[in-house]
Amino acid sequence: MFECDLNSSEKIELETTLSGIIDHDEDQVIFVGLGPAEGRGDRVITALGLPYTKLDAPCYVV
After folding, report:
1. Rg (CA), the chain
2. Count of CB atoms within 10 A of residue 1's CB?
3. Which residue has the higher pLDDT, 51 or 24?
4. Which domain does 52 fall in, by range?
5. Selection from 60, 4, 25, 62 nearest residue 15 by Cα
6. CA 32, 40, 55, 20: dihedral to nearest 10 degrees?
7. What pLDDT shows up at residue 55?
8. C-alpha angle 60/5/37, rounded to 5°?
9. Segments of 1-62 assigned E as strands
10. Phi, psi of 18 (to 5 degrees)
11. What is the pTM of this model?
């Protein structure tokens, strides 16, 4: 797991680079938008490769 402080264009660049590296049929890269440090809101989750499946149970990043 990596925590990255990215602006919008840096996130797009990272997604583009990773998209060219991963095996889209087997790998999964998940991006979790935590929002601003003060008053974190809803999490925003996107994925490259295998699709993200939302879990209703409590979620942990390991």
Report:
1. 13
2. 6
3. 24
4. 1-62
5. 4
6. -10
7. 61
8. 65
9. 28-33, 44-49
10. -65, -35
11. 0.59
pLDDT digits (tens, 9 = 90+) for 18-38: 999 999 999 988 887 766 656
Please count the other Cβ atoms lying within 10 Å of the Cβ belonging to residue 6: 13
State the pLDDT at residue 17: 94
Token pair of 7 as six digits: 């602006």
How many structural domains comprise the chain?
1
The CA–CA distances, whole Å, from 45 to 53, 61 equal 10, 12
Is it the case that residue 47 has pLDDT exceeding 60? yes
pLDDT reading at 62 higher than 50: no
Separation between Cα atoms, residue 37 and residue 56, nearest integer Å: 24
Q: Tokens 């996107």, residue? A: 46
